[in-house]
Amino acid sequence: MKAKVAIVVFPGSNCEQDCHRAFSLLGAEPVMVWHADTELPNVDLVVLPGGFAHGDYLRTGALARFSPIMSAVQDHAEAGGLVVGICNGFQILCEAGMLPGALRKNSGLKFLCKWVTLRVDNADTAFTSLAAEGRLLKIPINHFEGNWYAEPDELDRLRGNGQIVLRYAENPNGSLDDAAGICNEAGNVFGLMPHPERACEELLGSRDGRVLLGSLLDRIESSRKASA
Amino acid sequence: MSFAPELHRELGLTDDELEAIEKRLGREPSHTELAMFSVMWSEHCSYKSSRVHLRDLPTEAPHVLVGPGEGAGIVEVAPGVSVAWKIESHNHPSFVEPFNGAATGVGGIVRDILSMGARPIALMDPLRFGPLDDDRTKYLVEGVVHGISNYGNSIGVPTVGGEVVFEDCYAENPLVNVACLGVIEDRLMHGRAVGEGNAVILIGSSTGRDGIGGASVLASAEFDDASGDKRPSVQVGDPFTEKLLIEACLELVRNGLLAGFQDLGAGGISCPTSEMASKAGTGMRLDIEQVHLREADMEPFEIMISESQERMLAVVDPANVDQVLSVCTKWELDARVLGEVTKSGRVEVHRADEVLADVPADALAEEGPVYSRPIEEPQWLRDLHAAEVGDAAPPDLQEAFLTLLGSPAIASKRWVWEQYDHMIFLGTVQGPGGDAAVIRLPGHEVAVAVSVDGPGRYCYLDPYEGARLAVAEAARNVAATGGTPLAITNCLNFGNPEKPEVMWQFAEVVRGIGDACRDLETPVTGGNVSFYNETNGRAIYPTPVIGMLGSIEAPERSTGMAFVAQGHLIALAGTTDPSDLGGGEYAKTINGRIGGRAPRLDMGAERNLHRFLIASARTGVLASAHDCSEGGAAIALAESALAGDLGFRVDLGEGEAHRVMFSESPSRAIVSFSEDRLEAVRSLADETQVTLTVIGSVVSDSLDFATFAVARDVARDVFEGGFSRAMSASVT
Q1: Containing domain of residue B19, as a range?
Q2: A195 catalytically annotated
Q3: CA distance B724 to B705
Q4: Which of residues B288 and B4 earns the better pLDDT score?
C-alpha cells in the first residue's frame, strides 16, 4: 500500500505542486488539504510546503499557525504522526511552537536561491535513516528568512539530543550552529529550510532530496510492517 | 458638464485629439469620458506613433495560434501543447520608484499571460542601467532587483533568466522589461465580451488612487528633474493577492465558468471594458458604485482610470455567477458584478440614475489617432560611423582579458539571479547564466528554450543591422541549447517619437526585426512599444529587446554551455572577422570608444549554425555549446570553462591576438565534445555548411590562450566577484 501524504495548501503556498510531484515520483500517494479544513484525511505524513502562507504578512508563518487545519496537524503530531515543514512550512512549525527556535532574515539581508551542501549530522532519525552520518547532500535553498535562532540553553539541549539533524557545509544565511534542519524531541516533527523536493531528478541537478523524503517513506513502510 | 479648458492637456491629450473626440461623440465629452479617452488614446495604450510601422512585421505561421492584439501571443510548441509568451516594459515607473515599479511590472505581465487562460511558469528580466560607478544607479539596481525578487518569488513563478546591461544612456532612464511564459492548462481564453446579458465581474484588489495616469502621465511623456513628483502615478503591488488571483482564475478557467477574460493594467477599468466590448461587437453597462473602493471619496474619473494592481475582468453567464463568486470567496478575493454585456456597442457608466459616460467602445479601443510621424536620419550618425572604432591593441593582453571578464557587463550576474527563485515548478533544466533558459513544461515531457537579447549599442550605430543582430542572437541562444526558434515577442524601447531622428531609428529597427524574422521564420506574436525614454532631452539608445521562444523535443536532450570533462576537444563553429570590434565590449571597456559600424550579419551563415546546433543536440554529439557574443570567443571560452569548473588550452589562430579573441562576429559558437565524436561532429558541420575549427581542448585548472595563461581560480574570482565588487565599491 502506498504511503499517504497530506500536503497542506495555505493561501500563498507555492511549492505544493512540486511536493506533490516529488512524493509521487517516490511512489507515495499525495493529497492536497486546504488550510481552512478542520480535519486531516487519514494520512501517514503531513507536509507543510514552501511559499508565502497568507503573504507572510506580519511575520513569516505568524498568520498560518492560526489556520484552522493547524490544530489537526498538532493532533496528528501529538499522536506520534510524522510532520515535515519545508522552508515556509518550517517557519510555520516554529511559529506554532511545534519546533524550537525562530527564523530571522538572512544575515546578508538578501533573498537567496542557490544550491548548497548539507551534512547529515544525525542519521538516526525518521528523516535521515537512508543516509550514513556525515553524508553530504546537494539540495537548494530558496528563502529570505532562513537564519535560525534559539536561546543558548535551548541550543545546548538540541545539540545534546541530536536534534540538529542537518547542517550547512558552508553557512549561507547566518543560521545558528549552521543548522539547516531540526527535529522535535520526540523525533516525529521535522523542519528544514532547503527544498528536498527540488532535488529529486538528475535532470534538475540532484537526486539527493530523495534521501530525506525517501527516509520518511521508508519509516512509514517499516512501521506498517511492524504493526502488521 | 464643463471643466477647465486645459484639462485635456493635463491628461496628455492634444487639442487635435480633443477635437476628434468631440467630433466622434457629437458633443463635449464628460469629465469621466475625457479621462477614459486620455488613457485609451495614450501612446502606451493606442500605439498611435508605432502602428503604421508595426503593420509590416510578419505575424503568421502555422504554429502561431494567437498573434498580436491579445493579452499574449500563443504558440503551439508540440502537438497539443501551447504556451503564451509576452514581454512588457515598466521603465518609467521603475525610475521613479524602483521597488514598486519593477514589482508591478512583473505583476502586469503575469496577468497578461493569465488573461489567456495560461498558468504563468517563467519570468525573464532584461534590465538596463547607467554605469555602476554611481550611487543613484546602485540604488536603482538594488531596488529593481529586490522588487522583482519580492514579487516574482512570492507569486511562485521562477525568474529563469534575463540581462543586466550598463550604458551611460540609461543612467537617467533605466529600462526594466519583463517577459513571461505561460502554459495553457485547459482552454484558451479570449478578451471578448460575448453574450448579451452576461455579467461583467471585477475580481481582485480594491480600486484605489494608485497609478492614476500611469499610462498617460508616466509612460507617454518624457522625464525631467522634477519626475520624482510623479511618484503617486506609480502603482503599488501586492504579490499575495496576485498569487490568489492566479489560483482563483485558473480554477475558474478549468471549471469552464468564464465566457471572456481580460486583465486590468494600463488604463484601469477603461481598458478591458472598451476592448472586450469592441472585439466582440457588443457593449457594456456598468454601475460604478459596484466597484469596491479603497478610498470612499474617489471621483468617477479616478475609478475608471486607476491602475490599482491585481485585478481581472471576467464576462460570465448569469447561470455561473454564483459559482464564480464562491471560487473567489474561497481564495479570499473580492469579486463584484459591475454590470452586464449589452448589444449597444457602447460603454455606459452609471452612478444611480446619472450617466457618467456613454461612448462607443470602438471609439475608445480602436479609433485612437494614428500618426505617421516625420522621419529623418540623424546627422550625427555619419560622424559616429567615421569615429574611431577603438580597435587598437591593448598594452597587455592578459590584463585586457581579465578587465573584460570582470567588467559588470560580462561578469557573472549571480548577485542578481540568486535573489530570484529560479527553480520552482521543477522545470528549470537550464537556468540563469546560460545562453537560453530551458524549461520543462509542467504536466508535459516537452521543453521550451527562451532567451532575451537587446544589443543597444549595435542599434545605436546601425539600427537596421542592430535589430537583425538582436533577432539573430536571440535565436542563436535558443539554438545553442538545442531549441528550434519558433516565434518572438519584442519590447521596443525608444526615445521621444515626436523627434524625427528617434522615429527614424524606430522605423529602421522595425524593418530590421521584420526582415530577420522573415528570414528565420520566427513571426512576431506581440510585444510592447515604450516611447519617451528620455530625461532632460537625452534619448536612450534605440533598444529593441527580442524575446525568442523555441521548442526542444525532449527535456533531457538540451545542450548546456559548461565544459564537461578534461580532454574534450574544443572547436569554434563559424568564422571570425577580425574587424568586428565596432560597438563591442572590447572597444568600449578597454579603449573607451563607441564608434564605427556594427558587425555585419550573414543570415545564411546564421541559419546554418542553428541547423548545426539543433542537429547536434538531437544526436547528442556535443558535450557543450555556447554562443559567442559580448567579448567574443575569448569570453565565451572562459564562461564555458568556469561554468564547468574546468579550464582550456586553445590557439585561436592567425591574426592580431586581441582581434581574434574579442571580435564579436555573429553566427559563431564555442562547442566541446569527446574526441571519439570528432568525425560525427565534423560531418554534421559539413552537412550544415558550418566552418568547424578545432582550437584546443579542455584542461583542469588553467585558461590558456597560448600567448598567456590565467589560473582558473584567478579567473573565477574575477568573473564571479566582478559584479558584487562593482556594487559594493564606494563612489568617489
Answers
A1: 6-41+189-368
A2: yes
A3: 27
A4: B288
| One domain for residues B640 and B718 | yes
The answer to whether B216 touches B12, Cβ cutoff 8 Å, is yes
> What domains are defined for chain A?
4-227 (3.40.50.880)
The CA-atom distances, in angstroms, between B575 and each of B381, B478, B561, B695, B706 are 28, 20, 19, 12, 20
Q: Specify whether B400 is located in the same domain as B316.
A: no
Choose the mutation target among B141, B150, B423 for the interface with A, i.e. most A CBs under 10 Å.
B423
Is A197 one of the annotated active-site residues of the chain? yes
B149 in A contact zone (CB under 8 Å): yes
B324 and B400 belong to one structural domain:
no
Grid cell at residue B454: 537587446
What confidence score (pLDDT) does residue B637 get? Answer: 98
Beta bridge partners of B527: B490
Lowest-confidence region among B29-43, B226-240, B328-342, B522-536: B226-240
Rounded mean pLDDT of B407-426?
A: 97
**Cα B352 versus chain centre, distance:** 43
Residues A78, A83, A84, A90, CA torsion sign: negative
Q: How high does pLDDT run on average in chain B?
A: 94
The whole-number average pLDDT for the span B153-160 is 97
Better-scored residue on pLDDT, B222 or B210: B210
> Where do we find the cell 503530531?
A77
Q: Alpha-carbon distance B564 to A66, whole Å?
A: 50
| Residue numbers of B between 106 and 125 with CB closer than 8 Å to A | none
Q: How far apart are CA A139 and CA A123, in angstroms?
A: 17
Structurally, chain B folds into a number of domains equal to 2
Question: Is residue B565 domain-shared with residue B679, that is, in the same domain?
Answer: yes
CB-side neighbour CA atoms (13 Å) of B144: 31
Q: Which of A87, A94, A183, A200 is catalytic?
A: A87
Cell numbers given for A43: 494520512
- Indicate whether B17 pLDDT > 80: yes
Dump pLDDT digits (tens) for B649-697. 999 998 999 999 999 999 999 999 999 999 999 999 999 999 999 999 9
Is residue B575 helix, strand or coil?
coil
Q: Do B301 and B321 share a structural domain? A: yes
pLDDT reading at B1 higher than 50: no
Q: Quick one: cell of B150?
A: 519580492
B47, three cell numbers: 500605439
Coil, helix or strand at residue B551: strand
Phi–psi pair at B429, nearest 5 degrees: -75, -40
Q: For chain A, 228 residues long, give each residue's pLDDT as a single digit of tens.
A: 899 999 999 999 999 999 999 999 999 999 999 999 999 999 999 999 999 999 988 889 999 999 999 999 999 999 999 999 999 999 999 999 999 999 999 999 999 999 999 999 999 999 999 999 999 999 999 999 999 999 999 999 999 999 999 999 999 999 999 999 999 999 999 999 999 999 999 999 999 999 999 999 999 999 988 887
Cβ separation B243–A11 shorter than 8 A: yes
C-beta atoms surrounding B350 within 10 Å: 18
Q: What ipTM was reported for this prediction?
A: 0.97
CA distance B113 to B117: 7
Which phi and psi angles does B689 have, rounded to 5°?
60, 45
Judge whether A154 is closer than 8 Å to chain B, CB to CB.
no
Q: Torsions phi, psi of A213, nearest 5?
A: -65, -35
Residue type for position B582: G
In a domain, B545, yes or no: no
- Give the Å distances, CA to CA, from B708 to A186, B218, B393, B396, B446: 61, 52, 15, 10, 44
Rounded CA separation B195/B317 (Å): 8
* Residue A114 near chain B (CB below 8 Å): yes
Cα–Cα distance, B312 to B335 (Å, whole number): 9
φ, ψ for residue B438 (rounded to 5)? -110, 120
Three-class SS state of A187 = coil
